[in-house]
Amino acid sequence: MASIPSFSLLWESFRLAAGSLRSNKLRTLLTLLGIIVGVTAVIAVVTIINGLDSTVADAFSAQGSTAFSVSKRPLVITSREDFIKFNKRKDVTESDAAAIDRLCDSCWRVGTAINGSSLVKFGDSRAENVSVRGLSLEMFAIENVTIQSGRLWTEQEGNSGRNVCVIGTDLIENLFEGRSPSRILGQEIRVDGVPYTVLAIAEPFGKVLGFSRDNFVYIPFESGQRMFGARDSITVHVQVIDSNVFETAKDEVRMIMRNRRKKTFADKDDGFSVESQDAFIGIYQNATSGIYFATIGVAVISLVVGGIVVMNIMLVSVTERTKEIGLRKAVGARQTDILLQFLIESVTVTMVGGAIGVFTGYGLAYLLSFVMGFPLLISASSALLGVTVSFIVGIASGSYPAWRASKLSPIDAMRNE
Predict the structure, then answer these.
(1) pLDDT value at residue 206
(2) Residues in the chain with pLDDT < 50?
(3) Residue 174 in contact with residue 123, Cβ under 8 Å?
(4) What's the rounded Cα separation, in Å, for the pair 38 and 57?
(5) What angle do CA 253, 255, 256 make, to 5 degrees?
(6) Residue 94 and residue 310 in contact, taking contact as beta carbons nearer than 8 Å
(7) Distance between CA atoms of 139 and 111, rounded to whole angstroms?
(8) CA 51 to CA 121: how far, in whole Å?
């Protein structure tokens, strides 16, 4: 039964490996390069993707699995044919929202929204392509919008279509040059030339994929219809009180809407779209999975090439040190001692490359995050992944050279010139 190598033997093997690497600096650098590139790519991609996943999930899952929307067409349309087909559908109207509110037993809150974008001005300042949304009061609860300063409009103000609004924090800088909220509330901004009084400033939502979610003006739903056209299709938002009845509520809403559109079982198209936040997360994951696997594929190829380089360098090292191996065997070194020495040397090279790759990977991820505005999520698991991959490559690439070295005959090795 083979004995477990002692700590002193392991340390001696590591010292010999380090000495061999120091004596061949250029060769060591070239050996490390493939490992560094591969681990850097793995760490950078995993770090950025984890950050994006966390941010997107937080952004699109503010209501958890309790809210969904009903609209004329889906938000993501992938072909011209689908665009034409969806535009032929009947508009979603206030009467549809009222029917859902009245007939859906599993629905908790029902809100309405009409969406557009406009030029917004205050004095000589202007902000273009500002998201302008006409919302019913229920939407603030459904979308978890909180107010940092001021107040929401009242139900009476909303029903009468008063020209009042809630603004996002981007407009504090873009229009009001960073004024304090107390100096903004009560001011009058112009949305497409129409004056609106600022009643409140919303808490910031932050950015997703580098795009701000705080460049908006919310106005009462009735005011939104007046601005964008009362005959335009609206979006109905539904929230359930518990995620356990989420699918039940969706089925109820789908049945109500199909009945209102006189759809039969033979009609494959509902004539409307029901979408939840999970759908957006799924679209995002599909979009990023291709990038993720492609980059991981490049990293794997780089690690394989690096492993082959390590194996070749180790074979050269065995050839150069044949006489040394014979001498060590002649004075009592066992096959396992020689095997362990060269395995440790191989693993040392790849682990050093892996450690450098972890730091350069984090550095690359931070640089991309800073330049492109991507979120960053550094985790110990990604560092552990890089080190583990390096260790596996070291074992795999060093096993054959180490086996060859351990099998050398001491007599033949001593005669080698």
Answers:
(1) 78
(2) 1-2
(3) no
(4) 28
(5) 65
(6) no
(7) 5
(8) 35
Q: What is the pLDDT of residue 399?
A: 87
Segment (H or E) for 188: strand 188-191
SS3 of residue 274 by DSSP = strand
Helical packing angle, 246-260 and 94-103, nearest 10°: 130
pLDDT at 1: 44
The number of CA neighbours under 13 Å toward the Cβ of 174 is 19
Q: What is the pLDDT of residues 77-92, one digit of tens each?
A: 778 888 888 888 999 9
243: which DSSP letter? G
pLDDT at 189: 96
In 10 A of CB 114, how many CB atoms?
Answer: 25
Q: Is 152 helix (H, G, I), strand (E, B) or coil?
A: coil
The Cα–Cα gap between 252 and 260 comes to 12
Token look-up 């194996």 returns: 311
Query: DSSP labels for 57-120?
Result: HHHHTTTGGGEEEEESS-S---SHHHHHHHHTSPPP-HHHHHHHHHH-TT--EEEEEEEEEEEE
Query: φ, ψ for residue 323 (rounded to 5)?
Result: -65, -40
Q: Could you tell me which residues are beta bridge partners of residue 236?
A: 70, 112
Q: Which residues contact 279 (CB under 8 A, 6 or more apart)?
A: none
Of 132, 108, 147, 118, residue with least CA distance to 221: 132
Residue 351 backbone dihedrals phi, psi, to 5 degrees: -70, -40
Q: How far apart are CA 77 and CA 65, in angstroms?
A: 23
Sequence-distant (≥ 6) Cβ neighbours of residue 35 within 8 angstroms:
303, 306, 307, 310, 349, 350, 353, 354, 357, 390, 393
Residue 45, H or E segment? helix 25-60
CB 47 within 8 A of CB 361: yes
Residue 16 identity (one-letter amino acid): L
Place of tokens 């107010």: 147
- Model pLDDT, residue 109: 94
- What is the distance between the alpha carbons of residues 116 and 191, in angstroms, rounded to a whole number? 11
